[in-house]
C-alpha cells in the first residue's frame, strides 16, 4: 500500500509517571475521588510525540506549540499555567530515567485535584507519562479509514471553548465515535450546528481538491487549533500546494480527490471512503503521501522542521 510506514520491532514498557512533583509508579498517579477533576471534568491535557532519530536517541516533536496550547487551556479553565514551565525538564527526566529509545506518546495533564463545589477555585496538579507508541494500522499496514459523517455536533464556543483541550470536551465525540464503530465505520466526523463538517473526535480533517488544493475546516467551525493541523497547512504550502481553511459541506467532502485525518496520536489516517462513497484517488493519493513523507523526514531529524504557527484565541475565560 502507498502509505505503509514502518513501526517499532519491540514494545518497551515505561512504568513511571511524574505526578504532583514526584516520580511514582503509574498506578500511584491517582486523583482523589472527590476532586473537582473527577466531579466536574476540570482537567486539561496535551499529547506530545517523541520520535526516534536517525542519528540516535529520541527528540520531542513540536514541544513549543503544544505548551502554548496547554497554557491557553489552563487559562481558559482557570488552572495554574505556571506548571507548564516544568514540562520540558520532566519529559527529559522520564526519557532518561526509563531509557526511552523508541517512539513514544507523552501525555501531560493539569487537573483540579482539590475537593469542592462546581464554583470552587482549583488547586492544580501536574501529571506526565510517556507510553510506547508506534504507527497506527493506517500507516503501519497501509489500510484506509472508513469514515462516517455523524449527526452528532461539536458545540459552539458559546457552549464550550473549542480551543480548550479539556477532558469534558471529548464526552460527546466519544459517543459519536462509538456509534460510528457500531455501524461498521472506523471513525467519524462531527458537524457544526449549521450542518458544516467540523472535525473527528480526536483528529483534524483535511481534503484535497482539484489535484493540489489542500482544504481543512475553519477554526470557527468549532475546530480545536491542532498542532498537526497547523503543521499540515504550513508544510503543504512549503511543498508547493495551495492550503486553505474553508467551510466544508458533506457534499464537498464526498467529492474530494483525497481525504485524510491527522493528529498527534493518530499521526495520519488516509481515508478510503466517506459514508460509503469511495474516495476517488484511493489508494494512490500523491498529496497525502507527500505530506506523510515530509512529516517523518522532519520528525526523524532528516531535515529541519517546518515552523508551526498555532492560532490560539487571546486571553482566558470570557
UniProtKB/TrEMBL annotation:
Keyword set, alphabetical order: Aminotransferase, Transferase
Top-level taxon in the UniProt lineage: Bacteria
InterPro entries in the cross-refs: Aminotrans_IV, Aminotransferase-like, BCAT-like_C, BCAT-like_N, Class-IV_PLP-Dep_Aminotrnsfr
GO MF entries: transaminase activity
Family classification: Belongs to the class-IV pyridoxal-phosphate-dependent aminotransferase family.
Protein name: Aminotransferase class IV
Species: Actinokineospora xionganensis
